[in-house]
Design a protein that fits this description.
Layout lengths: L17 E6 L5 E6 L3 E6 L4 E7 L4 E6 L5 E6 L2 E6 L5 E2 L5 E2 L4 E6 L6 E6 L5 E6 L3 E6 L9 E4 L5 E6 L5 E6 L4 E5 L3
Antiparallel strand pairs: 1-2, 2-3, 3-4, 5-6, 6-7, 7-10, 8-9, 11-12, 12-13, 13-14, 15-16, 16-17
Length: 186
């Protein structure tokens, strides 16, 4: 059967070109970020901008966790993990009110720009790929026995990193086309 697709123009504009967009797994919130790091969080169904925010720098990567409760951004060589603002509640005036973004934590171990961020399916871990020729494995929260891990060996910038479907293998790809697969050895 033919599918019916619709497009809508959202009733807001960024001051500069949009550089990154991310959509929550449920598809209810859209985070758009311009070239200068100014972000707008939009309620997709209601088509309203719910929150304006500045990351105070150029966002080089953006990914929502599958849980929809966190997102991670690359800001140059830094990674910031943020809580997704909660659903609206009514304030005393009866207006919609959204909790502002709250930073969960920051990682500063990369030596060059972060190009890509990918979450594990359970939202407990995420990968970062960087121009510093490494990928790294991070945990959202402290995990017993887990130490953030550096995956090194590429000869050029790592442009992407992904978990396999069963989460047992990690694939990394560098600018020169090299694909590495990394397996957990206990």
């Amino acid at each position: 059967s033919p599918r019916s697709n619709k497009s809508h123009t959202l009733p807001f504009a960024h001051r500069k070109n949009i550089a990154r967009i991310g959509l929550t797994p449920r598809g209810n919130l859209l985070l758009s970020v311009d070239e200068d790091g100014h972000a707008i969080l939009t309620n997709v169904q209601r088509r309203i901008a719910t929150y304006h925010f500045s990351f105070r720098g150029k966002v080089t990567a953006l990914a929502f966790a599958p849980s929809g409760r966190h997102f991670a951004v690359g800001l140059g060589r830094k990674i910031e993990v943020w809580h997704v603002p909660s659903t609206p509640d009514s304030n005393a005036a009866g207006e919609l009110e959204f909790a502002p973004f709250v930073k969960h934590h920051t990682h500063t171990q990369h030596f060059d720009h972060v190009r890509h961020i990918e979450w594990s399916s359970d939202s407990r871990f995420f990968l970062s790929a960087s121009k510093d020729m490494t990928a790294r494995i991070w945990s959202l929260d402290p995990e017993d026995g887990f130490v953030p891990t550096v995956l090194s060996g590429h000869k050029q910038a790592v442009v992407g990193a992904w978990f396999s479907e069963n989460q047992e293998t990690i694939y990394t790809v560098s600018k020169d086309g090299a694909v590495f697969d990394w397996q957990y050895v206990g």
